[in-house]
Amino acid sequence: MKNNKSPYKKINNYNKNLTSNSKDIYQSKYKNTLSPKPHNKYFSTIKKIILSIVKISVAIFLIAVISGSILVTSLTVYVMKYLDSDTEIDLRSIQNNYSSVIYTENSDGLSVEVQKLFSTSNRKWVDQSQIPKNLVNAFVATEDERFFQHEGVDWKRTFAAFANLFLDLYSTQQGGSTITQQLIKNITGDNKITASRKIQEIFKSMNLERHYSKDEIIESYLNIIHLGYNTDGVGAAAIYYFNKEVEDLTLIEIASFAAMTRSPTKYDPIKNPENNKNRRKYVLSKMKEHGFITEEEYNQTVDADLVIKKGGTIKNKENSDVQSYFMDALISDIINDLIEKKKYTKEEAESKLYNGGLTVHSTINLEIQKQLETAFSNNATFTGNTSSKNIPQASGIVIDYKGHILGVVGGRGKKEGNRVLNRATQTSRSPGSTIKPLAVYTPQIERNLINWSTILKDSPITITEKGKSKLWPNNYDRKYYGSMNVNTAVQRSINTIPVKLTQSLTPKVGFDFLVEKLGFTTLVESENKNGVVYSDITLSGLSLGGLTYGTTLKEITAAYQIFGNGGNYNKPITYTKIIDSSGKVLLENSPSPTKAIEEDTAGVMNRLLQQVIESKNGTGRAAKMPNTTIIGKTGTSQDLKDQLFIGATPSHISGVWLGHDTPKEISSIYSSPQIWKNIMSPIIEKEPKKDFNIPASVKKLQYCTSSGKIAHSGCPNKDTGYYRESGTPEICNVHKKR
Fold first, then answer.
1. Which one of 9, 212, 568, 717 is CB 3.0 to 4.6 Å from 216, fit for a cystine?
2. Options 220, 324, 395, 433, the catalytic residue
3. Do 24 and 132 share a domain, yes or no?
4. What's the pLDDT tens digit per position in 378-408?
5. How far is it, in rounded angstroms, from Cα 568 to Cα 519?
C-alpha cells in the first residue's frame, strides 16, 4: 500500500525546488546545527565526560566502602583489644576517698600493707540536697548542655573531637567530654589525648550512666572537681574562697567556680581576677541562653564585682600522723615520675597519688627503717658528750644491691611533719674523700694504669692561685709520707696521690664516669653565674670532693654498689611497681643494671676498701665489727664542714652524713665510722654471715714492698695484694733471685 505522506519525500521535494544559490545560503546558515557529523562529535564528548564522572564516583564510593570496612574492622579489633573488661566504677566509694595503699614484702616474702595515703587536699563532701540548683545549671550550661538528655556521651561533640585527633581540623584540641566523661577522668586521673583512652572513657561513661542516676553523677562530679589551691569539690571551695557553706553561694560566686573548670590556675579568681571575670561572663551568658537565669538576673550579675572572703581549710584526720622519711621520699619519687614519665602536671600527679586508688609496691624494709629511726632519735648514737653545743644534723640511708632503698632517715631527733627536708635525698654537700674510690682509683685500675702495689709518691703539686704559686693539697694531718703503694694511699685517704692520678688521666674521665655510669645528677659540667664560670671538671672536685653543689647521700651511697655486685650499678628506687585502680601497671621500675666496670676491677676495689676497715692504719677502722666483712670509705670536706662514711656488707650499702644545715666546722668529737657502726650494727648483726663474691680472675699474689712488683725468692720484704689478671705487674727486677 502506498503512503504518499512520507515526511522524507516532502523534504526531498523541498530540496529539489531550492536553487543552488539558496542551498548554499541555507547550508551556510545552519551547518553548525544541522550537520550530522558535528552533532555526533559533541555528543561523544559529553558521553566521555559523563562516563568519566561515573567511573570516578564509583571508584570513590568503592574506596570509601573498603576504607570504611577496614576502619570498622580495625576499630572493632582495637576496642576488643584495649577496652577494660571491668568498666564499672563505684561512685559510692568516692565519698570515702580513693585512698592509695603502700605495700612491701616482709621477711617471708609476703606482701604487707605499710600505709594508706589519703587525700591531702582541702575537701568536704556535700550531698545533692545541699547543692544549689543554679550551681548544677552553671556547670551543665558551660560544660555539657545536653547532660540531662544523653546517656553518657554527646556523640555530636565526640565525633568532632575524635575526627580532630586524626584530621587536625582545628588549631586546638576540641573538647568532646561530657560531665560524665570528665568524672571518669577525675576518678582515674588519666588525661592522655589518645584514641585508646577516649574509647575506654566512652564505654566507661555509658556503663556509669546505666548504673547511676544523673543526680548521683553530678553530685560526684561537683564533689571531686579540682578548684585550685589544693581544694577539691565545691563544698571545700565555698569555704576556702567565700567562707560560707555551698548552699549559701550567690550567682556570681557560682559562676566563678564554673569559670575555673578549664584551668583553675588561669581562671584563679584571686591571682587572675580579670580572667575569671571574662570567663564568668561566658558562663552567665550560657545560663541565660538555656533559660536557667532570667535577663534581669544576668544583667544584675554580669558586671558585678566578685568579693573574695577566704575561710579555712578542711583538715583530714587520716593525714594527721607524721609519716616516715621513707614515705616522704617515696611520695616525692612517685609525683616526680608521674610528671616526667606520664606528663602530668604537679596538681594532677598529687591528685592521682592521693585520690587515684593506687597500689604501690615499695622497697622499704620495715625492720631496717625502724632501726634507723630509733638510732637517729637517740643522741648517744652520735657522741658520748651530750653537753656539746655544736651538735650537727645527720642523715642515713640503706640500699641493697638491686638499688632498692630499704630505709632512710633525713634528720636527727623527732620528725615534726610530713614531707619536710630530707637530708639524705634532698641536701647536696661535699662528699669529701668518699669520691676517691669512684672518680680516681676505679678508672685507673680499670685501665690497668695502676694496681694494688703500684708505688706512688705522696707529695704536693705546685698550683697558681690569685697569681701566686703554692704547694697543694695538704693531707688531713698536714704531713707528707713520701713513697707508698696504692693500698696504703687508699687506707690512709692520702690527698696528694689522687690529685696526681686525676691530673694524669684528666678530670673529665672521672666526671664522665660518675655521670654516665653511676647516675650522678648534681655535678656541674659548666655553669655561668654572674660572670663566673663554675665546673666540677677540676682536680679539687674529682679528687677531693670539692664540688660546686656537692652530691646527695643517696647518690654517693648508691654508687658504692659497684664494689659489691661485680661492677653493676642500679638506680636507687623507693618502689618497684604502681598499679592503678583498674588493675593496670601505671609505673614500673624494672631491673636495668648498668655495667659500670669490669667484674675483676670491682673485685680489686672491694679488697682495697676492706683494708680501710681491717688495717691498723685504715681511716675506717672504727667501723669494724666481729665476724663481718665490711668495705668502706671515710669522707671529710676540705673545710671540715661535712663528714661521711659509706660502708657495705655483702647484703647492702649504707651511708651516714654529718653536718650543719648552715655549713660550719664540725666538732672533732664526732667520728663518722663510729657513728655508722652505732647505727648499723643492730641491723648487720641479724644478717646471714657471708663474704663478698670475688671473681676467680682476681689473683691473690705476693708482691715486693720495695718495687711494688710481683715478689720472688730474693725479695726481702713481701706482702699480699689482689690483682686483675690483665693488670698483674711484672716480676720484681730490683732484687736478685736466690
1. 212
2. 433
3. no
4. 989 997 555 556 789 999 999 999 999 999 9
5. 12
Q: Give the closest residue to 574 by CA, choosing from 330, 302, 243.
A: 330
For the question of residue 433 being annotated catalytic, the response is yes
Domain that holds residue 172: 121-315
pLDDT tens digits for 604-645? 999 999 999 999 999 999 999 998 999 999 999 989 999 999
Residue type (1 letter), 82: Y
Rounded distance, CA 444 to CA 451, Å? 8
Per-residue pLDDT tens over the stretch 237-261: 999 999 999 999 999 999 999 999 8
**Between these two residues, 75 and 504, which has the higher pLDDT value?**
504
Q: What span, in angstroms and rounded, lies between the C-alpha atoms of 207 and 151?
A: 9
Residue 186 lies in a domain: yes
Quote the CA–CA distance of 7 and 330 in Å, as a whole number.
106
The reported pLDDT for the residue numbered 95 is 59
Which sign, positive or negative, has the C-alpha torsion 268, 274, 279, 281?
positive
Asked if 547 and 390 touch (Cβ cutoff 8 Å), the reply is no
Question: What gap in Å lies between CA 675 and CA 382, rounded to an integer?
Answer: 6
CA distances from 144 to 184, 193, 246, 276, 708 (A): 14, 19, 21, 19, 83
- Crossing angle for the helix pair 273-289 and 295-302, to the nearest 10 degrees: 180
Same-domain check for residues 185 and 293? yes
Residue that the C-alpha cell 651538735 belongs to = 391
Contact 103, 88 (CB under 8 A): no
57 catalytic? Reply is no
Which phi and psi (to 5°) does residue 406 adopt?
-90, -30
Please indicate, yes or no, if residue 71 is contained in any of the structural domains.
yes
Q: Measure the CA–CA gap between 472 and 544, rounded to whole angstroms.
A: 12
Tell me, yes or no, whether 166 and 239 share the same domain.
Answer: yes
C-alpha cell at 125: 563532701
Cβ–Cβ < 8 Å for 624, 639 = no
700 in a structural domain = yes
pLDDT at 602: 98
- Marked catalytic residue, from 143, 253, 348, 350: 143
Lowest mean pLDDT among 26-30, 508-512, 597-601: 26-30
Q: How far is CA 132 from CA 249, 250, 313, 380, in A?
A: 8, 9, 21, 61
| Maximum alpha-carbon separation in the chain | 153
Confidence of residue 192 (pLDDT cuts 50, 70, 90): low
Return the closest-CA partner of residue 91 out of 213, 229, 242, 235: 213
| 133 and 75 part of one domain | no
User: What is the identity of the amino acid at 450?
Assistant: I
Instruction: Please work out, in degrees rounded to the nearest 5, the angle formed at the alpha carbon of residue 534 by the alpha carbons of 529 and 538.
Output: 180
As a whole number, the mean pLDDT across the chain is 86
Q: What does the alpha-carbon distance between residue 438 and residue 452 come to, in Å, rounded to a whole number?
A: 16
Residue 126 has pLDDT above 80, yes or no: yes
Residue 132's nearest CA partner among 294, 249, 275 is 249
Sheet strand arrangement including 652-659: 405-409, 393-400, 652-659, 642-648, 631-636
Instruction: Indicate if 157 and 76 belong to the same structural domain.
Output: no
In a domain, 597, yes or no: no
Assess whether 186 and 49 both reside in one domain.
no
Helices 155-167 + 195-211 axis angle, to 10: 170
